[in-house]
């Protein structure tokens, strides 16, 4: 069974960089599939942030493209997210998920999510 | 790209059927047959339920079904059970490699 677990600081200062990692178990990231990040601000809809493939290919949401970077470390089976110049609007629960894009358009395995608050 | 529109809440009694709507536009739900649905219990990881509008993910009971008409997709849960009480989210491919989600619907089993 594929399992994902997000980790990272729960509090980030405004204007700084939000950094999260997602540990994947039960499946080798280098075997295929894209791996993505999705977030949900309090009281708002889920929002796809972006997804990455183990060969370095990435897709990003247009609204976040200028501030986001997603990468994969195949040696650690780890997915990473960096979002720079954060503001209070970036406060959200952040999820990582396996993304079936280009074959299927859905997320079939998700982490439990981690709350990140942007505040000084 | 705006979020898909879902009703904030729906409710039903055990054994009844409920339907959750998910309204998009002719650029997403109406254009592509790539609507998926997710169930989320408090504090748990979202669970993949439905994909390609009507297909059930592995292990999902056949009480859960999906459909689409025009720009609106729907999730129907028949034979409602207490364990179905959760939040449900729809998602649609929106072109340009992007996916958009709905705001979520809280299902209460009375």
Short description:
The complex is a heterodimer of chains A (120) and B (110). Chain A is an all-beta fold and 120 residues long.
Description:
The complex is a heterodimer of chains A (120) and B (110). Chain A is mainly beta and 120 residues long. Chain A has strands spanning 3-7, 11-12, 18-25, 34-40, 47-52, 58-60, 68-73, 78-83, 92-99, 107-110, 114-118. Chain A is globular, with a radius of gyration of 13 Å. Chain B is 0% helix and 46% strand. The A-B interface holds A 4, 38, 44-48, 59, 61-62, 95, 97, 101, 104-113 and B 1, 3-4, 32, 34, 36, 38, 43-48, 51-52, 57, 89, 91, 93, 96-104.
Keywords:
heterodimer; A: 120 residues; mainly beta; 7-stranded mixed beta sheet; 4-stranded antiparallel beta sheet; 0% helix; B: 110 residues; 3-stranded antiparallel beta sheet
Question: Considering DSSP H and I runs of 4 or more, what fraction of the residues of chain A is helical?
Answer: under 10%
Order of helices and strands of chain B: EEEEEEEEEE
How large is the radius of gyration of chain B?
13 Å
Instruction: Report the radius of gyration of chain A as a whole number of Å.
Output: 13 Å
Distance between the termini of chain A: 39 Å
Strands of chain B, count:
10
**Could you tell me the mean pLDDT of chain A?**
96
Strand coverage percent of chain B = over 45%
Strand content of chain A is over 45%
Tally of strands of chain A:
11
**Share in helix of chain B:** under 10%
What value does the average pLDDT of chain B take?
96
Shape of chain B: globular
Low-pLDDT residue intervals, each spanning 5 or more residues of chain A: none
Number of helices of chain A: 0
Distance between the termini of chain B: 35 Å
Main structural class of chain A: mainly beta
Q: What is the structural class of chain B? A: mainly beta
List the helices and strands and how they pair.
The complex is a heterodimer of chains A (120) and B (110).
Chain A: E1 3-7, E2 11-12, E3 18-25, E4 34-40, E5 47-52, E6 58-60, E7 68-73, E8 78-83, E9 92-99, E10 107-110, E11 114-118
Parallel strand pairs in A: 2-11
Antiparallel strand pairs in A: 1-3, 3-8, 4-5, 4-9, 5-6, 7-8, 9-10, 9-11
Chain B: E1 9-12, E2 18-23, E3 35-40, E4 47-51, E5 55-56, E6 64-69, E7 72-77, E8 86-93, E9 99-101, E10 105-109
Parallel strand pairs in B: 1-10
Antiparallel strand pairs in B: 2-7, 3-4, 3-8, 4-5, 6-7, 8-9, 8-10
């Amino acid at each position: 069974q594929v399992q994902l677990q997000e980790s990272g600081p729960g509090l980030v200062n405004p204007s700084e960089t939000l950094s999260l990692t997602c540990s994947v178990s039960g499946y080798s990231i280098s075997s295929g599939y894209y791996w993505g990040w999705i977030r949900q601000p309090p009281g708002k809809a889920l929002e796809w942030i972006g997804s990455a493939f183990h060969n370095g290919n990435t897709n990003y949401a247009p609204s976040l493209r200028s501030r986001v970077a997603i990468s994969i470390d195949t040696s650690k089976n780890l997915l990473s997210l960096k979002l720079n110049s954060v503001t209070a609007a970036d406060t959200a629960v952040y999820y990582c998920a396996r993304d079936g894009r280009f074959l299927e358009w859905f997320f079939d395995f998700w982490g439990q999510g981690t709350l990140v608050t942007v505040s000084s | 790209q705006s979020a898909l529109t879902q009703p904030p809440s729906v409710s039903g009694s055990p054994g009844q059927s409920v339907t959750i709507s998910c309204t998009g536009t002719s650029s997403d739900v109406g254009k592509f047959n790539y609507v998926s649905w997710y169930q989320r219990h408090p504090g748990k990881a979202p669970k993949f339920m439905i994909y390609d509008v009507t297909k059930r993910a592995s292990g999902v009971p056949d009480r859960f079904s999906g459909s689409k008409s025009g720009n609106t997709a729907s999730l129907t849960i028949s034979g409602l059970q207490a364990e179905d009480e959760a939040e449900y989210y729809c998602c649609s491919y929106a072109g340009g490699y992007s996916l958009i989600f709905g705001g979520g619907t809280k299902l209460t089993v009375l």
